[in-house]
Amino acid sequence: MKILVIGSGGREHALVWKLKSSPLIKKIYVAPGNAGISLMATCVDIKVNDLEGLSDFATEKNIDLTVVGPEVPLTLGIVDLFEQKGLRIFGPTKKAAEIEGSKAFAKEFMRKYHIPTASFKILEDKEEALAFARTAAYPVFIKASGLAAGKGAVKANDPEEGCRIVEEIMGEKIFGAAGSRIVIEECLIGQELTVMAFTDGKTIIPMLSSQDHKQIYDGDRGPNTGGMGAYCPTRIVDEQMTQTIVEQILEPTVLGLEKEGRKYKGILYAGLMITRFGPKVIEFNCRFGDPETQAVLPLLHSDLADIFIAIVDGNLNIIEPVWKDGAAACVIMAAKGYPQKAETGQKIEGIRTYRENHAYIFHAGTRKENDDWVTSGGRVLGVTAVNKDLRTALKAVYDTVEKIHFEGAQYRRDIAYQALK
Ligand code: AMP
Ligand code: GLY
């Protein structure tokens, strides 16, 4: 089988690494990929939002299956276009991907189908939003409804802060058109976690749970990022809680989307808060999470290509994924200045395979300059270690991270602190 993976981050490197071990796959192309991925697959320089270019490439190379990493091509309708052209592709259609593409849609959908989530108000007019922000019960989260690379949610602690954030999003348009509609919602209290699920629109199979670390600094301080590290599995959910999440959240979402004519196939990512009233949805994503995927996939024993094919063919009921024992921890090494303005072009030293630590190095923002590795983005590398338990995996991951150097490297020292308390 020939496969095309779309995307260029650590998530896509982890996907390619995992797919590479499948005996079903003979050739992997990645568009556009990155310097690390090019060590194990053929990278082609087509942008993730160039849907025509991608479908022409898939046709020309007789690609058997295309796997989409990021949300942007999904919300632009890449699956619809490929399907029109008779090409097999893994992911939700444009209408189904709206569950991530529009927070306003997702919140109204959850209200309609009684899926537990924070109480909320959707606002389109700035003056109305300011009036609401003056009298809301604080703290609240104020969110741009559209896509903002995971950075479109801001916490406000009092009316003054609330009004300032509304002004920034709707007046100054700091998130561009994504902020022309906003959601103001109740602040949920509890433990946050990620549950991603495989689904073909009928069968839903949750993966092991994981936890991301959104803020740049230890102790969850500083601005939000795309994610600074993850570990898997968490101890927050046991079998019974997983069942509750499936019954109260994942099933009604997939079934509700089907009822709305938005049949969902692919990965459904639920960002959840386990509150004292049970699990509630913070957000849905229509794809694998990053960095969570870098911690979850190394624990998957089963063949990922088999699962993808079963989903595309609508046969997921025949699959029973098998997971490895033990734990995985992933630490993101980011460039100086990230998440505001990342400094690139720094030479990276110490990248090699670290078999002794059972560690994998997934590349995100790297490029090759002559024989040197050089930083080329905000999140530079994801280092993942797998071991018999979380403490051993963490020791191995930090041993490895400390061997890798570049000027101004930022990484959190407290990944998985929630699990060690
Ligand atoms: P989002 O872009 O909606 O995923 O929000 C980014 C991050 O902000 C989440 O991962 C949570 O840590 C936090 N967050 C968002 N909404 C809420 C909420 N209603 N209550 C508590 N934390 C939230
Ligand atoms: N880790 C959060 C995301 O993938 O959106």
Helices, by number, come to: 13
CATH architecture of the largest domain: 2-Layer Sandwich
Strand order of the largest sheet: 3-2-1-4-5
Radius of gyration: 21 Å
Helix-residue proportion: 25-40%
Offer a quick outline of the entry.
With 421 residues, this protein is of the alpha+beta class. It has helices at 10-20, 51-60, 71-76, 78-84, 94-101, 103-112, 126-135, 159-171, 239-259, 292-296, 304-313, 390-401, 417-420, and strands spanning 2-7, 27-32, 42-43, 65-68, 89-90, 120-123, 140-144, 153-156, 182-186, 191-199, 204-206, 211-212, 215-217, 221-224, 229-232, 266-275, 278-285, 327-334, 347-348, 359-363, 366-369, 372-375, 379-387.
Structural descriptors:
single chain; 421 residues; alpha+beta; Rossmann fold; Dna Ligase, domain 1; five-stranded parallel sheet; five-stranded antiparallel sheet; binds adenosine monophosphate
Question: Can you describe this structure?
Answer:
By secondary structure, the chain is an alpha+beta fold. It folds into 4 domains: 2-91, 3-Layer(aba) Sandwich (Rossmann fold); 125-180, Dna Ligase, domain 1 (2-Layer Sandwich), CATH 3.30.1490.20; 191-318, 2-Layer Sandwich (D-amino Acid Aminotransferase, Chain A, domain 1); 327-401, Glycinamide Ribonucleotide Synthetase, Chain A, domain 4 (Alpha-Beta Complex). It has 13 helices and 23 strands. The chain has helices at residues 10-20, 51-60, 71-76, 78-84, 94-101, 103-112, 126-135, 159-171, 239-259, 292-296, 304-313, 390-401, 417-420, and strands at 2-7, 27-32, 42-43, 65-68, 89-90, 120-123, 140-144, 153-156, 182-186, 191-199, 204-206, 211-212, 215-217, 221-224, 229-232, 266-275, 278-285, 327-334, 347-348, 359-363, 366-369, 372-375, 379-387. β1 (2-7), α1 and β2 form a beta-alpha-beta unit. It is globular, with a radius of gyration of 21 Å. The mean pLDDT is 95. The structure holds adenosine monophosphate (AMP) and glycine. Adenosine monophosphate (AMP) is lined by residues 118, 141, 143, 150, 152-153, 185-188, 192, 214, 224, 271, 273, 282-283.
